[in-house]
Write a structure and sequence with these properties.
The radius of gyration is 35 Å and the shape is elongated. Among the domains are: about 120 residues, Phage tail protein beta-alpha-beta fold (3-Layer(bab) Sandwich), CATH 3.55.50; about 90 residues, Immunoglobulin-like (Sandwich); about 140 residues, TonB-dependent receptor, plug domain (Ferric Hydroxamate Uptake Protein, Chain A, domain 1), CATH 2.170.130.10. The chain is mainly β. The strands form 17 sheets. It has a 22-stranded antiparallel β-barrel. A five-stranded mixed β-sheet has the order 15-20-21-18-19. The longest helix has 17 residues. A hairpin with a 2-residue loop joins β35 and β36. The protein is built from ten helices and 68 strands.
Amino acid sequence: MDLRAICSSSLPKGKALTKTLRMMKLTAIILLSTCLAATANGYSQKVTLSERNAPLDVIFKKIKAQCGYTFVYRDEWFKHAKKVTLDMKDVLVTDALDACFKGQPFYYAIVERTVVIYKKDPLSSPAPSNLQSAAGPPPVDIKGKVVNEKGEPMEGVTVTVKGTFNSTSARANGEFTLTSVNENAVLVFSYIGYKTQEVPIKGKTKLTVTLVLNHNDITMSEVVITAIGVTQLKDQTGTTSSAIKKEDIAGSGEAGLINSLAGKASGVRIGKSNGDPGSGSVIQIRGSNTIQGASQPLIILDGIPVSNDNLGNINVSQQSRLDDINPNDIESVQVLKGASAAALWGSRAANGVIVIVTKNGAYEKKPVVQYSFTQSFDKINVFTPLQNKYGQGAGGVWNRTAQGSWGDKIVNRTGGDDVMNQTGAYFISDVTGSKIYPVTTKNATQTFLKENYDKVFQTGKYREHDVSIGGGGKKVSYFFSYGNLSQEGIIRNSDYTRHTVRLNTKVQITDKFSWNNKFTYTNTKSNRIAQAGENTNGILLGLLRNAPDFDITEYIGTYVAGGTAYQGRQRMYRRQIGENQSPDYNNPLWTIYQQRSGTEVNRFIMAPELQLEPLQWLNVIVRGGFDYYGDDRSTFFPTGSSSSLRSLGRWEKDDITSREMNLDAIVKASRDISKDISLTATVGVNYNDRYRSTNSNVLTSFAVNAALPSTILNPDPAASTWDRTITDIRSNRGYGILAFNLFDQLFVSASGTFEAASTIKGTFFYPSADIAWQFSDLIKSNILSFGKFRASYGKVGIQPAPYKFHTLVTTGFSSFGGAYLISGESGNPGLQPEVKTEYEIGTDLRLFNNRIQLGVTYYNSETKDVLFSVKANPSSGYNFNYKNAAVIANKGIEIDLTAKVLKIKDFQLSINSNFNANKNKVVDIAGTETVDIGGTSKAVKGYPMSAFYLPGTLQSSDGKLTLDANGFPQVDTKSRVLGDPNPDWRGGVGMTFNWKKLDFSFLFEHSHGGDYINRTRITLYGFGTHADVGNEITLTEALKNVNGVTFAAGTTLRGNIANFGGGNVLLDEAWYNGRGGGLGFNKVNDLYVEDATWTKLRNVTLGYTFSNIQLTKKILFNSIKLSVTGRDLILWTKLKGVDPETNNYGVSNAFGMNYFNNPGTKSVLLNLQVTF
């Protein structure tokens, strides 16, 4: 923090700036001081003074000599000030200052080791009320205490007798004392960031005042946390960032930290994988910047980088490691979006930086205990509509082994019992013990859509307990918390638990030396069910393809044929007596209850920090970081599971160890170059080491049919494979920052980072610069309270994947005598990091006495040397070359608006909103036209990232459909771009309403435009189970189907009517099972690309707070708050049966497609918070 004494009484001749500008300089310093007041600890220091008729500045020098305080003031103020006589021994600094300023026209505030003094203008106040006649009432002494809305003491609050110069400041415990006060006086309590309040004494001779201060309309000068973990006034920065309040995070209703950020910051997209408990989510800031490189932003927790890994596999969506952090431990979240703000992290910052600060205790503060309990009830937010009119079969005829449900009309059956063949093979259910024979004639009219649905899904719920205690003494502060989350998913038998322990401590060893340490431990366990959308073991794949007239209850049992019993067989709609060991698809209950995917993660994060202030203008920080987790995973497929890979049994065991060590040494110096120009110089060095080890074991072809994993499933070495992968990335950075403050109006900063890493050769330089001009200092306006223009420029990067310099070899076999296999990808010794260059310009405005705050930003970035694997020339002997070969561009606009709409007595109403429009483009891909990202998503030259690239309709040069002889569109087997999932714009709008102790808030999030392709719907059309293909129509004219068969007018049949430009045609089973639907990509896919626009009621909360609840004589609750929250309760979208936020590809750059994704959720939460 740069706080300096102001000693000059006037500006030199020739300067155009006015006295008002100089006062703005002082005001800015006061704002900086007050915003950081929470860290003040010097009130406990004592001084000894013995002076007679001494000027104030002499007293200040004495205090500075004894305690090291810096005083901020203007010399000319004290020319006519009263001289002071003091004789004090071992008194608090605040007591000494109170004595100095008694009867003086000055105020003061203490922050850390700085005393800021400012002058009260007597012309703006009525005549001092202490100038009364001798006959007036005698003065009294006033003692009181100031607390915030949580009942916590507030230090540094200015307490003034209205209309006089008699004032003081609240001490660290919130207490204050005023002497010689008129019994009819009014006390004025003021503190920047809070509303000024006036309290009449009303004749009391001995008064104790406890106040709860209300927040001002908008905090006048926010403090931001930079990329290296130091604070800076937002009004003095030329970069843009978004702050997310801890109350908004804790009140979001989300179990994980990532999803709690959704809709709260412009330019930030949070993409959920699905509604599985603990499943991962993607964070994207200002669009995609890379193709195959790291796409997530860097996470800085308490000054150190930590992992947000999402190491998935093909069977289950895994957790994002950021969700290991308890959201209730968060003090603040800052999103640094631009390259300039993030440049100090070099090649790890191209995707932005999220800076997270956890809670601390406070010096000289009694312990504050808080307890919170949350109970959530979760439901599926949207489900694919299915038909229940037609049974299993094809061509209108029932068939028990048919893949689709194009069979007979169910209501036309005779009813009664089905006819069965009881002379041959049969099935004995393990569920009910029933004996089931193959059906030969289907008579029953019962359908099971709801029953099957209820057997798979349930009301999910989670219970969360959090307890914390924070406080401190004169030299030590502490914050301890424990959190326990236990979640049951909406899919039966899925669960997730999280235990977190945190201990944050601060020790003021000496006046110049302090030690901080933040430690957290997390244990998570989960079973997310061994399945994924697009494999044949998938839950929704098996459920949605299931025939509506097949009951999935009897899913496991014994198949008996020819006198032989085959135990542990699976029964599903195409194998109704378990006659095949490898069914086409899993019965969803088999997936839920027989397959397993368990994980257990133990994680430790520690961030120790030493701070040294050898001189008043010099600060030294040495900060360490250690982030370790062990992730033990086990996935089990018993014999009889779907697919040849798993039908004989499969057990996968992964042990993942990840460790990141970080060390920073930072030196910061702040000096005045002249009375109007100051300089802050920062230099630092960083060492970082990231290590990961993965041990993988796979056991297949079980010798015995086991329902649980065991090492004796198959002792044959040929049935077992083992491999180990190790990556170790090291980097060193050296960086420097020069920041100039010119006239407290113009702020210029430049930085440079040199970086060397094990993944690249040589050293790379990442520069940045930003400028902020507070132009409102030159404007007098009743409308404009504050105005700033800002601009910035910076370069950041993405490192190449490790071990790409050389061509690698892998072992072909793990047993003795195994050979080695040369990698199909050639090494490249000339690799460089991807480099993103970005500039941004914008403005920050506050209007109408700070009631409205507006921020507007335009940014433009280009990422060059983007890395990916390019197909190699076959003559080279390799399949791929990994090289720098692409360019990606992003540009857009961001708008953030906050407004206090109404504030009348106990009633407050405020709104906040954000808007972002980003345009992304793959400018160039050298050596190819497309690069695969995942599934249908590709990077295509000239198009946005993640474009849908697959076959569509055959079209003429003017874009018209080329129809066949029967009037149907044809398939163009050549793939092309069919859609873009990136939205045109995104935004959020929220409102907060407070009336006395009642509060109400809501947040809407909207995503406008972009495309979505629902391949679940396309596939189910072919299977005949989707509701769209369950229609029965009577033709009013003769129509042809895709095969050229004509159906006469008056015919009643199953299907739909469409016109593709050549007249009406019949869409029936032939169409939906061919080019119009079903399995595979060789379809008219562009006809199914839909508008992805959606709006969600992200959360809505109603709460009431009870204050000062006396439970017993010894137990007093400061507050009890009860609230109810709805999360994602309403979804508006044109898409049918799908939540467009869920992503088939999990945490990746590919999105915008559904293929039997697990559904999302909506929730109602009840919360109890107790503070005592």
